[in-house]
């Protein structure tokens, strides 16, 4: 539907005079309004308001090109149109059964006033909970192939908001979050994971909170064929400006494009309450529908794996301790086994047995394939071949053993950042998976990227991840990427792309000092805005697990580990601890065994970034509900109304709560399991210990 | 065999004192001697002599590493050993049936005198016709992964030799040769093909001639996992120093290595006569034996192709004239055909018919696959998919048509330099070839390389070419690479790698002004030292062939075009002209039909770089001989003794010669075919026109 008034206005004032319009263009939905205008210099700008309160003050738009004839200066407004969309779609899997996509779109057509007269459109979509916009280059003779060197997108914030941020490292997002005022953003004291970021450069999703209670989240949607956007923070003016991740040539090039083309959507989610941020489907709605026709083979799932024992230093990925191995020409049977190789046939069978006993469909095995002796840190191209098992890992035997027990092994493809090597071997690797009954693969990109000079978050790698999502789909394989760029909702388009890491996961509690208790209360407001995370929760042995670091412990109680299965949404959830540790607490493990990974409905009951989170979800195709509540380092008593349950139906609630005296640091494993009958009129009082949580299963009782 | 005296000497003087040896180490064979010594600064040096005449004066050796702890300074001589080798091997195909590999090897063990005490070996092989040497890094704890930033290999020449050179462009070798003194080397006036070289930087093989009649050729052998070596010329001192092609990061890195590893061989072929240079097998001998066990499927062959008509502008590679095409999402059947598409089914059948009529086994078809509308110059990654034919190219129909006539189509994979795209599609592309009866592929790398920043001749691409040779072999496919790095004898190791372009081919006469008549007299002394070239000779219509450039003509007579099939050795030879042009001269085409592409014996009868060349070869497994004689811009009468023929046997000689009055510029198509009976005691007088040549077939007469 076109807004005739706007076109009429343009025809009257804008197009006919070919002069800059005196008036701004506006789009709005409910309380959110977006204003586009050319500033005094003729440059395009936009601003966002929520119910009359400024969210983003007038902020510049623009794109610089390598040939010096980009879109940085004055532009002429050729015209504009709006349309209203209100539609509903069903995700293949997700937090809710059905998603409403309702927005008003404003498309602005711009042109360079002088030769070459290149054209640029800016498309805004205004939702009830925020705004998305992107640059689009229409097909035009004056612009075909071009190189973006800078994007001049700005977000002028009206005040010195509190921000939850991580450094703008082009190669890693595995940082703990810092909460600070914008005026205090400084990455200097933070130890670099890969490369040091500029002192005032941060990553998205960036979560912001204003002094007067506005919650604002800035990120991007549908990152394809373009580098990731980081943000440079001006600590005086509170202006955020886009910083695109450069390519590998060292020339300052950011993106090589061919018109017609468009950037990803820049997203601003805004609400006057924190739960509304978490409930937003704006980013998903800005992604394209599924490219896969047949999705029946895609199966959200829980899994265990030969993994934590390596993370904590009790087993090794490698078969031998030899260093300086070359993939070609090594006879692996001649190496001296180190006796600590985790991925040996007998050990894997233990995990298969445990999975089969506890209705866990998947078993990940890392370190199964040759090349781990000196895989990391050498910028080595031929690092893995993805098809040759170590001598003590019997692929065929394990395939049969797992199949007989109704379990499927999950493949692991660590690339060590050597993406070129992976790409040239993907065909063979996926054939190998199909031949040996694997349905899902976890990929990894630890270390410096090859093609050398490229970044994890640059255009070339962004395209690699998307190609890998498509290529795995072509072979009907699910994929879970670690160390890839943080997600931007592309799991809508590629529903076989179940999860990503792309943040600091639970593993940091294994091999390093870990993350503070608030970490998991921030993740949903930041990293998870883009999509599911393979966080690998479920650690039951919370102290004394790390070989060589006896004092190390999780910053979590056991009950909180259970709650994470609800609060950190993912269709792929690991039960990350060792079978022997679960066997010590099988009563608690029952919650992990019960909890679904796919949902019909989700309610964000309580939320405050950095503080607490309470979420209830209804299992897909069931009447069962599951509830998770977590807190930061502070104890809390959360009062939860169960009014999301269907009226008049009795439920048995099983409550997995911190026991009195529990705390993450002193007494993390103290939990108490209680049962009670509840209805939609019941209220639960959940005591959360410092660093604690509570998990509740709610199953309907027979009528 | 160890030379006990040398070891004893070392134990006495070298190792025990851990001081620099007072005496040099020497290896020699016949007239060639090699001397290794540490200079006053303790740096390793070498020198080469031929019969007491200096070939290379004492010259520095050394390698710099990125960590600053390389092999540039003083080194300690740990020891040395020599061995003598004399063996004979049979190439899968080639210029001769059997090759003798006879050399004395001197291995010098060096170590850094201070921490980290890294070790470096230099291995010299002294042949009767020159020297090869390389750097080797043994396995050692103090050096595992390392990055080479410079190789300080020098060639100090004793005088201001005449040199035949092309600019040291990292991305192209398609230059005409300049003949000049070393003191006059200057690439400034030369138009760059890809990137401009530094003014005094030239490529190898570099052919040199001293004032007193020494012929010296400098190149490298077995270029694997290392960048190509170019040479910087010092015009005052006549010192050549190695310049490795850099990688794509812009950091100055040249090669990423892992010990144990070695560089390619640096080769110096030397003789007191020009034919001995061409007869040298030194470079082949320095390459590894074939990696392929079964080579029965490898078939040297002639071919025709849908190619010259595009080169001369009479047909197009593309199906449509649309520009700005994207590979993904384009419906090629909806494009408007331009009506000039060469690779259409009917046109291809014409070539198949011609090939079948004239015993030509192969038909190359370029432009068969989608993507040619704007393939070049855009640094575009997804440029071709290698499996989708244009709508007017019927793969199955042509496969059947060709097979019925005993002809095989040759596949074409132009990559436009997008090697990453090719690598990720190679598996599918080679499966497609196997499914459709293709046995050979011509690859191309026109344009800037992707991974962006990499060079055609850098380490990453060198590895790509070698991988492609191995990967095609794995699928039993032959390969012919265009725009790849110049060869270094790797066809011994990968005999399915039939040919390369890697120099200025005949095509420059089609789309540009071409090469001077001397060009083909220089190529065997330069580019062909490394391996066969797909030069695409055999143009019969020598004037008026280029659409839009009616004055353009070849710098060759027709008879010379025939002679090239003998003088430019290749197991893959195109008959490059159009069938209709051959049909005008079927009597001359008989030579192309007859001439083999694989040989039992070869005699370099007359040779002088830049002037003339006369070569006779005996067809593989036959008693037939073929002779080619060519000249530069000067007419010559060459007197050729046929004493290479078996004594006492009568042969019919068919002589394809320039007719009186022929010349490349005024009367190029004037040829005369004559027949005479000859024996080993006969002498032929071959009149060569300016830019002319002569071709002779010699078939034994029935006894």
UniProtKB/TrEMBL annotation, chains A, B:
The cofactor(s) it depends on are:
Ca(2+)
Domain named Glycosyl-hydrolase 97 C-terminal oligomerisation: which ranges? Answer: 598-699
InterPro entries in alphabetical order:
Aldolase_TIM, GH, GH-type_carb-bd, GH97_C, GH97_catalytic, GH97_N, Glycosyl_hydrolase_97
Task: List keywords of the entry alphabetically.
Answer: Calcium, Hydrolase, Signal
Q: What domain of life does the UniProt record list for this protein's source?
A: Bacteria
Signal peptide interval: 1-24
Q: Which residues form the Glycosyl-hydrolase 97 N-terminal domain?
A: 32-289
Query: Does Amino-acid biosynthesis show up as a keyword for this record?
Result: no
Q: Which Gene3D superfamilies match?
A: 2.70.98.10, Aldolase class I
Q: Provide the Glycosyl-hydrolase 97 catalytic domain boundaries.
A: 307-503
Q: Which GO terms describe its molecular function?
A: carbohydrate binding; hydrolase activity
Q: How does it assemble?
A: Monomer.
PANTHER family assigned? GLUCAN 1,4-ALPHA-GLUCOSIDASE SUSB, GLUCAN 1,4-ALPHA-GLUCOSIDASE SUSB-RELATED
Q: What is this protein called?
A: Glycoside hydrolase family 97 protein
């Amino acid at each position: 539907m076109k807004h005739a008034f706007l076109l009429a206005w343009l025809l009257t004032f804008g197009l006919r005079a070919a002069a800059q319009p005196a008036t701004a263009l506006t789009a709005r939905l409910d309380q959110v309004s977006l204003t586009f205008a050319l500033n005094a210099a003729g440059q395009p700008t936009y601003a966002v308001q929520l119910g009359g309160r400024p969210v983003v003050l007038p902020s510049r738009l623009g794109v610089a090109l390598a040939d010096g004839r980009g879109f940085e200066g004055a532009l002429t407004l050729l015209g504009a149109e709006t349309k209203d969309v209100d539609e509903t779609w069903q995700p293949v899997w997700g937090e809710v059964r059905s998603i409403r996509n309702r927005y008003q779109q404003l498309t602005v057509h711009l042109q360079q006033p002088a030769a070459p007269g290149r054209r640029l459109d800016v498309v805004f979509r205004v939702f009830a909970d925020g705004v998305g916009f992107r640059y689009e280059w229409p097909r035009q003779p004056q612009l075909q192939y071009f190189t973006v060197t800078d994007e001049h997108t700005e977000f002028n914030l009206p005040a010195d908001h509190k921000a939850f941020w991580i450094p703008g490292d082009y190669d890693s997002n595995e940082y703990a979050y810092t909460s600070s005022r914008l005026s205090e953003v400084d990455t200097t004291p933070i130890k670099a994971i890969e490369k040091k970021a500029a002192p005032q450069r941060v990553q998205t999703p960036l979560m912001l909170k204003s002094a007067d209670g506005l919650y604002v989240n800035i990120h991007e949607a549908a990152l394809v064929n373009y580098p990731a956007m980081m943000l440079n923070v001006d600590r005086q003016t509170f202006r955020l400006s886009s910083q695109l991740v450069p390519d590998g040539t060292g020339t300052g090039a950011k993106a090589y494009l061919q018109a017609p083309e468009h950037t990803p959507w820049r997203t601003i989610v805004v609400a006057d309450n924190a739960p509304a941020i978490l409930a937003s489907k704006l980013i998903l709605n800005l992604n394209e529908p599924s490219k896969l026709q047949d999705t029946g083979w895609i199966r959200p799932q829980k899994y265990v794996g030969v993994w934590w024992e390596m993370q904590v230093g009790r087993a090794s990925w490698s078969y031998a301790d030899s260093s300086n191995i070359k993939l070609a020409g090594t006879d692996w049977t001649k190496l001296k086994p180190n006796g600590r190789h985790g991925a040996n046939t007998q050990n894997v069978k233990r995990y298969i047995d445990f999975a089969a006993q506890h209705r866990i469909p998947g078993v990940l095995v890392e370190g199964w394939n040759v090349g781990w002796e000196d895989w990391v840190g050498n910028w080595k191209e031929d690092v893995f071949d993805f098809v040759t098992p170590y001598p003590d890992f019997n692929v065929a035997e394990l395939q049969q053993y797992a199949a007989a027990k109704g379990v499927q092994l999950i493949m692991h493809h660590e690339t060590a950042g050597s993406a070129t090597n992976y790409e040239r071997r993907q065909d063979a690797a996926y054939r190998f998976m199909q031949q040996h009954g694997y349905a899902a693969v976890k990929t990894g990109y630890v270390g410096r990227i090859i093609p050398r000079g490229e970044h994890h978050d640059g255009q070339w790698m962004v395209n690699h991840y998307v190609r890998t999502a498509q290529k795995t789909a072509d072979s009907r394989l699910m994929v879970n990427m670690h160390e890839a760029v943080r997600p931007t909702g592309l799991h809508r388009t590629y529903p076989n792309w179940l999860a990503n890491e792309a943040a600091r996961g639970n593993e940091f509690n294994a091999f390093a000092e870990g993350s503070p208790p608030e970490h998991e209360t921030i993740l949903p407001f930041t990293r998870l805005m883009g999509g599911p995370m393979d966080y690998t929760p479920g650690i039951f042995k919370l102290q004394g697990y790390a070989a060589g670091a006896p004092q190390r412990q999780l910053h979590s109680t056991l009950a909180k580990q259970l709650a994470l299965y609800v609060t950190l949404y993912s269709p792929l959830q690991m039960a990350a601890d060792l079978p022997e540790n679960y066997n010590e607490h099988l009563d608690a493990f029952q919650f992990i065994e019960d909890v679904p990974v796919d949902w019909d409905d989700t309610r964000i009951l309580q939320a405050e970034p950095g503080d607490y989170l309470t979420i209830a979800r209804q299992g897909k195709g069931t009447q069962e509900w599951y509830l998770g509540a977590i807190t930061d380092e502070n104890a809390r008593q959360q009062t939860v109304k169960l009014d999301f349950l269907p009226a008049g139906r009795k439920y048995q609630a099983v409550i997995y709560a911190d026991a009195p005296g529990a705390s993450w640091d002193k007494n993390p494993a103290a939990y108490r399991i209680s049962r009670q009958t509840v209805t939609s009129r019941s209220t639960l009082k959940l005591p959360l210990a410092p660093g604690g949580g509570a998990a509740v299963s709610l199953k309907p009782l027979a009528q």
